[in-house]
Amino acid sequence: MGGLADRILRLTGERPAKIGALHGGDLSDVSLVTLQDGGRLVAKSGPMVDREARMLTAMSDAGAQVPSVIASDGDLILMEALYEERAGDGSWAALGTNLRNLHDVTGEAYGWSEDYAFGRVTIPNATSGDWPDFWAANRLLTHVDHLPGGLAPRIANLCENLPRLLPARPAPALLHGDLWTGNLLFGAAPSVWLIDPACFYGDREVDIAMLHLFGQPGGGFDEAYGPLDAGWEERRAVYTLWPALVHLRLFGSGYRGLVDRLLSQLDV
């Protein structure tokens, strides 16, 4: 176990009895740690985990249900270990309430105090008072130098038209920022935790769009979360384009079709 075990001992006062890899470690190393007294915790290491710890704290302060951060030490954070189960009765409604609590906390501008990253893909978070400008500069144009042929001019054309597609100043809600279904951890119903955040302040529809990227929320979510503004389904393609571009850069050409479809849907 070596160095990791020594660091856990220093941070917790207890030496691990066992350390095993957990799923979900595509962009960070994630381990389940069993301590000598039988207690468990999750160790996550990587260059951005200290920022993740600050995001989790901000989300917890907002009343969202997230894993508790036990300790943070540079490129290592220790979090409570949670028991995962299938979504059950009331789970999706609990998510709606959880997410609404998060989004009810608002900032003074769009963005975040620190940049973030998914692996080698940087997520700039420079603050702005204009939402279409923020989305263009920090979520779309930042990718154009890294895209295969033909996509860059289409992205640039879309960004010129964002002021007519997106609201200028929606409430700058506290967002999870990467809320696909794989970043939901369901416990004994109706418990659900939000994990692996990429927080920033922005239009709440960003998180809603992400929830529909590889599936859709289950029964009870819509009622618990509450109504969205008219036209949100049309705006969804603009917001889904960002994770599609990130996936294209991280995982390759298999996501080119998704990016093309979204741009075509947006008439660019």
From TrEMBL:
Pfam families: Fructosamin_kin (PF03881). GO terms for molecular function: kinase activity. It comes from the Bacteria. Signal peptide: none annotated. Keywords: Kinase, Transferase. InterPro entries: Fructo-/Ketosamine-3-kinase. Belongs to the fructosamine kinase family. This is Fructosamine kinase family protein. The lineage of its organism: Bacteria, Pseudomonadati, Pseudomonadota, Alphaproteobacteria, Rhodobacterales.
